[in-house]
Every structure is written in C-alpha cells, then in structure tokens.
Design goal:
heterodimer; A: Histidine-containing Protein, Chain: A; 4-stranded antiparallel beta sheet; globular; B: alpha/beta; Enzyme I, Chain A, domain 2; TIM Barrel; 2 domains; 8-stranded mixed beta sheet
Chain lengths: 99, 578
C-alpha cells in the first residue's frame, strides 16, 4: 500500500500585538504536533520546523509578518487549515490582556 | 596525573574510582565519559527528560485546578521546550560526538539557547528565565540520578562534589563510599563532620578538584596531607599502597591502649566520650574505647527520609543506642537543623540569612508538635538507660525556660497516658553563641550541665561562615576571644558545680586537648575514630604542664602565636604525632 503524501501550503499574517512570542508559538507547536504530517513554517526564505518551539521563536515574527505554513503528509489538508485558523484568531489571545 | 591541594579534615588514605556529584546551582563543568558509556549517558538524558516532563504535567494539572487554566499555560512553554527535537538532538549530538556527560550537554545547549533568547525583542528576552528554569529541572533529575546511585552502590567508590549537604550524605551507602573530597568547605563543614563520623578520609577546600574529575577516574584521597590525586601514575599508587600498610600497623598500636583508662600521666581521670549521628556508631564508640556518648546528633532522623519521623522512629533509634551503651551515659541533643532544605522548605519564604534565622531550638519552639514528638521519644527511652537531654543554640534564659517547661509538660502528658518516665533526666544546654557564654553564670543556675559546641561558638564569635572558603581562615579555635569565652564557661561550671563538656571538633586535636585540660576541662566528646588518638594524648600529658601552657596562652595576642606555641608544646610530649 502506498501512503499518499500530499503537500499543502497556506499563507497567513500574524495579527496579534506582540507577534509570535512564547505563548502563541507554544500553542502553534502543540497543535502542529497533533498531526502526522511534517509541518514547516516559512518566513521570507527561512524554513523552520513547525513542531519545534525553539525554531519557531527564531523566526522573530512580529505583528503583520506574513508566514507560509507548509504541511506534507497524510493529514496535510486538515493541518494547514487548522493551523491557519489558529494564527488568524490571534492564537486565542486577548491583546488587551497581553500588554 | 593531577594533584590538588586542600584542607585535610578526616585522616586516612583511599584509592578508588570516583563518583562525581554536581551542584545544581553551580557551573556545570565539561566532564567526559569513555566512548563505551555513550549509550548509558543517552539513556540518562532520556530518563531525566521524561521525568521532567512527567513532573511538569503534574505541576500543570495541579496549577490548573488551583489557579485556573490560564495560569497553568505557563508550563506549556516549558513542556514544549522539553519536547523540542531541535534542542534534544543537539544534546544527544554532544554526548555522541564529544563524549560529554549529560549534565554538560543539557547545560551547554540550554545556555547557548538562552543567549540567543537575550538577543530577541524585550518581550521574548524575558522568557530566558523559563529556559533557566527548564535547565534547573533537568539537571535536578540528572544529579538526582547520581545521588540515587550513591544510595545503592555495587562497588567501592570515593565521592567528589562541589559541596555536600546533610540531606545528600544521609542516604549514602556507607559500606561503599570510602572517601569524600569537596571543592568548598573548611575543617568543620558538614563533609568534614560526616567523614570523621564515618571514619573515612576526606579533603575539603579543594577549589576545583570536582571540576577536573571525570566519573570513573581513579582518585587518591589523602586525608592526612590534604591532597587529592586524580588519575595517579603507577609509582604514586605503589607509594600509597606502601603507606596504607604502615598505617594499619600504627593503628594497631593505638588499639593496644583501647582498654586503658583516659588518665593523664599525673593521674587525673578525663571523661572521654564519643559524638555520634547514627545509632550504629555507638558500637564504634565502644570499640574505640569511649566511655559514653557525649553528643548524639538527631538530625539524621529528619534528613534521611521524605516524611517527618514519627515518635516510634525516634524511640527505636534511641533505644538502639541505649541498648548498645548499657549503663554508660548517652546525651541526646534535640533537633539542631537550620540553613538546610528541611527547615527552608517549611519556611514561607526562603530565609535571607538562615544562620541567623529560625533554626535549632528556635525552630522547635515554633513547631511544638515536632518538638513534643521528639521529647516524648527521648523521655520514654530514658527508662532504658543513662539518658541526658541537651538543647542546642540557646541564646537567652527565656528560651531555656520555655524548653524546660515543654519537657515538664511532656513528662506529665506521658505519665497521664500511663508511661513510666524518669523525672530526673539531666537537662543541659549547648553553649555555642557568645550571648550564652557571656551569661553562663545565670545559665549555670538553671541547667545540669553545659556542652560547649565550639564549631558554632567560633562561627558566631568571629562572624565567619565556616563553609565559605574565602573567609574560612578567620575560623580559628585559637582566637583569644573564643578561648576567653570557653574559659568563662568552664569557670561558671566550677563555681556552680555544673558539668562542662566540649563536643566540638576542637576537642579532637591533640594541641587543643593539652590547652583545654589546662583550662580546667575534664569532659571531651569527639568523633569515634578520633578517640584512640585523644586518649593517647591524654595519657601522655600532665595537668601540671597543661596548666602552665594555658597560663602562657592567655598572654598571647593572636591565634597564630597560640597555634605555633601549642604545636611546639604538644610535639615535645607526643613526637610521634608530628
């Protein structure tokens, strides 16, 4: 049997005030780790592992940064959709409280 | 071969492979392992990571219950770091390619990462403390593994560490730990005391010996000359083996005076007793020729286990000692903890200055349940032998009176419950702070005996932390002000007919034995292995000579002059010691 390895890619913009700091990065990694697919996050031409919090933080993605989320694997479709939704919701953070 | 010079604190020589115990709060040195241990080291790392993850998961769920999910989310970042392949692979790589110990791999990868963090925008740089927190957590597990190993060893080893705490040494496999060496510490540090109690060689104040030692290295600890030799060459090993043989012969000559009384050459009998920490040491006191226990330290009942000792735990330990000692006196000191994990973990905030904080009798008077539990056990045990009760760190009359009142209350409670209790158990106090020594005439009217604890008395008189190697030279028993305080206490004892004992390390050094007998002291309590040498000293000197020495010492101005004079005097009497 052959596992279907599809690649999906989606572009998102960081909406929250402090960008991709520790807590949002952790949420992202927690969600990404639930998928079997390989997850990569790309800023300009830097590609990092979306399941590694230390790698995510090196992106230094501030508010308004645009990122590409790329998933490769059996559940790539669902992964990019859910991850993009997380980013667009501002990682479930309330910016007022986040000051 | 590397030779390190330190302070000899417990005599003897030992040659064994090293176990190195790192300190969590200090710099982790780059230590190496042999290539065939790489797999074991990777397993250690893996275990420490999974234990840390488990610990954090538990912490997260209790925090979530108590403070809500939002607060608990702090730990998610920590958990994400622990799972981070990027970090873990770097750690594994260091172990695999550079053959470093797991501690160093963890510390160097996380420190490097923390550095990167600090370069990031301010709101991220603050998270660097999370990285340090994770580092501490993993190191705690790794160092805990080494410590765990020391509890149940399958080979004889020596332990090298930056420093050793009572809670670390309490669980050591005492049959297999044959020597101690630490970077920190002075003559009266915990390491020194425990080594002398166990009768194993120890050298402290080595500055960086533990850093230069790799686990498994062959190490010679020379507790006579105060040196540690890492990876000695063949010639050195042979030299030491030859020495060890001769030492056995010398000890044999000391054994010959074991059954002879501790009487000076001019016929004055001296009460020579032993200090113990563990019940089984009572046997050693007898074997070495001691005539009782002058100081039974009970802290190890508290430090050896996770839970607080019960009345029965205390009772069993005390009965064991009394059974061994028969009719001979046994002086049990109540809990004397402070400045350690036990009391600090029961403190709402860490004390800024624990040596001047809630310790010893102060701690007991504020934790009456704990105090009563111990007193009940001591009083019950008093029916089984010749027990006396000793309070540590008394600083004023109110404390002494409070403590005595609690003893009376406890006696009454026990009698009401139908226990038989001796009501005439002698009650004494340690004189180990200047305020107690200065008021000794008042105290003498309210106690049955004094016990001078010179270790703390020197520390508090000279205002010097004896474990801080940068100031430890100030810690000297020969300081004229210390000697004057001791003299006052001996005089008060004579005036009010109160027994005065001395149980500090000072009492086991021949030159001070000469001086103290001259000052009028007649009871000495020392670590069991030191008893034969002290007895030999006592039997070699006359009180007449000792008195002359004490008078001469009183005219000197500095500890250096005094030490020089005392060594000169004692070497005339006991040339074989020097």
């Amino acid at each position: 049997m052959c596992v279907k390895l599809s690649t999906r890619e989606i572009e998102v913009t960081i909406p929250n005030k402090h960008g991709l700091h520790a807590r949002p990065a952790t949420r992202f990694v927690q969600l990404a780790s639930k998928y079997e697919s390989n997850i990569e996050v790309i800023k300009d031409n830097i590609v990092v592992d979306g399941k590694s919090v230390t790698s995510m933080l090196t992106l230094n993605a501030t508010k308004g940064t645009s990122l590409k989320i790329r998933a490769t694997g059996p559940d790539a479709d669902e992964a990019v959709k859910e991850l993009a939704a997380l980013v667009e919701s501002g990682f479930g953070e309330n910016d007022q409280k986040d000051g | 071969m590397e030779i390190k010079k330190g302070i000899a604190v417990s005599p003897g020589v030992v040659i064994r492979p090293a176990v190195v115990l790192d300190a969590e709060e200090y710099h982790i040195p780059e230590r190496h392992i042999s290539p065939d241990r790489v797999d074991d080291e990777l397993k250690r790392l893996e275990k420490a990571l999974s234990q840390s993850t488990q610990e954090l998961n538990e912490l997260r769920s209790t925090t979530a219950k108590q403070l809500g999910n939002e607060t608990a989310a702090i730990f998610d970042f920590h958990l994400a770091l622990l799972k981070d392949k990027n970090l873990i692979n770097k750690m594994r790589q260091l172990i695999e390619t550079k053959h470093v110990v797991a501690e160093f791999a963890v510390a160097s990868v996380l420190r490097e990462y923390a550095k990167q963090f600090l370069k990031m925008p301010e709101y991220l740089a603050g998270r660097v403390k999370d990285v340090y927190d994770i580092e501490r957590r993993i190191l705690h597990r790794l160092i805990g593994q080494t410590h765990q190993r020391l509890i149940d060893l399958d080979e004889e080893v020596v332990v090298l560490a930056h420093d050793l705490t009572p809670s670390q040494t309490a669980n050591f496999d005492r049959r297999h730990v044959l020597g101690l060496a630490t970077d920190a510490g002075g003559r009266t540090s915990h390491t020194a005391i425990i080594a002398r109690a166990l009768g194993i060689p120890a050298v402290v104040g080595l500055k960086d010996a533990s850093i230069s030692t790799n686990p498994g290295d062959t190490v010679i600890i020379d507790g006579n000359r105060g040196i540690v030799i890492i990876n000695p060459d063949e010639e050195t090993v042979e030299e030491y083996q030859h020495y060890l043989q001769k030492r056995v012969e010398f000890e044999h000559t000391l054994d010959q005076i074991r059954d002879l009384p501790a009487i000076t050459a001019d016929g004055h009998e001296i009460n020579l007793l032993g200090n113990i920490e563990f019940p089984e040491e009572a046997q050693t006191v007898l074997e070495k020729g001691g005539k009782g226990i002058g100081l039974y330290r009970t802290e190890f009942l508290y430090l050896g286990t996770e839970t607080e000792p019960t009345e029965e735990d205390h009772y069993r330990a005390y009965c064991k000692v009394l059974e061994i000692m028969g009719d001979l006196p046994v002086c049990i000191r109540t809990l004397d903890l402070g400045a350690d994990k036990y009391t600090q973990s029961r403190s709402p905030v860490p004390e800024r200055n624990p040596f001047l904080g809630l310790r010893s009798i102060r701690f007991c008077l504020q934790h009456l349940d704990l105090f009563r539990t111990q007193l009940r056990a001591i009083l019950r045990a008093s029916m089984k032998g010749n027990v006396s009760l000793l309070f540590p760190l008394i600083t004023n009359l109110t404390e002494l009176r409070q403590a005595k009142m609690i003893v009376r209350d406890t006696m009454e409670d026990l009698e009401e419950e139908g226990y038989e209790v001796r009501t005439d158990v002698p009650i004494g106090m340690m004189v180990e702070v200047p305020s107690a020594a200065l008021q000794c005439n008042q105290f003498a009217q309210e106690v049955d005996f004094f016990s001078i604890g010179t270790n703390d008395l020197i520390q508090y008189t000279m205002a010097v932390d004896r474990t801080n190697e940068r100031v430890s030279p100030l810690f000297s028993a020969a300081n004229p002000s210390v000697l004057r305080l001791i003299k006052e206490v001996i005089r008060a004892g004579q005036r009010y007919d109160v027994d005065v004992a001395l149980c500090g390390e000072m009492g086991s050094e021949p030159e001070y034995v000469l001086l103290l007998l001259g000052m009028g002291l007649r009871t000495l309590s020392v670590a069991p292995p030191a008893i034969p040498e002290v007895k030999k000293t006592i039997r070699s000197i006359t009180i007449e000579h000792a008195r002359k020495v004490a008078r001469q010492v009183a005219t000197f101005e500095s500890d250096k002059e005094i030490i020089r004079y005392l060594r000169d005097q004692i070497s005339q009497v006991l040339p074989e010691l020097y």
